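call fold(seq) -> tokens
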Amino acid sequence: MSSPWSDPSTPTEPGAPYAGPPADPYGAAGAQYGPPVYGSTPYGGYPPPAYPPASPPATYGYPAPWYPPRRPPKPGGVIGAAVLAFVQGGVVAIVSLYLWFFASLADAALTEFDGSFTPASANALANEGTIVALIQLLSAVLLIGAGVWVLTTRSPAARRLLMAAHAVQVALALYWAVRLAVLFDDVADGGSLLAFAVLFGSGPLVSIGLLLGGAARQWFSPTPTY
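ret:
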């Protein structure tokens, strides 16, 4: 048995007449405000809330480019040469004061207790000790002043002055080595003093070597590269 819906010749019954759009599901509120608006204004017709602008991305590298760059550190050889100058200057000053004190008493002491010295030779030895003590005191002042200048400037003249001050100390050490060898014929008597003279000149030699090093020469060069 065929269905009447599949037969095109079968007449259809008319349906119910159009009753208009369906009732508003939101009631009076829907009639007043209308349906919700979707799209670019999802907040009931109001613009979206404003957020603070995003912070700029973090930059890496030098943290404060407005600060001047840090100065390069002073080479250790320069600092070592200055420290040795201070130590040498202090030792020389103390030894010079003792030498001046003994030289002032040598004129009377040598003629009274040692018959090998005549009054003339004792007087000459006392004068020599006084002059050497004065020279050593001046050399100690030169050492300390040159050491301070080297630590506070990069002038090539400061490096040359400190080298000259240490060279004076080497010359004084050689003087004492020769003078003590002449005064003391017996090695047992003058051995300790000769050892002190050698030690007296070792510090300045080390300082001169440090100042001649490549780091010190570059630090005090007229056109430094760092």
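The chain has six helices and no strands.
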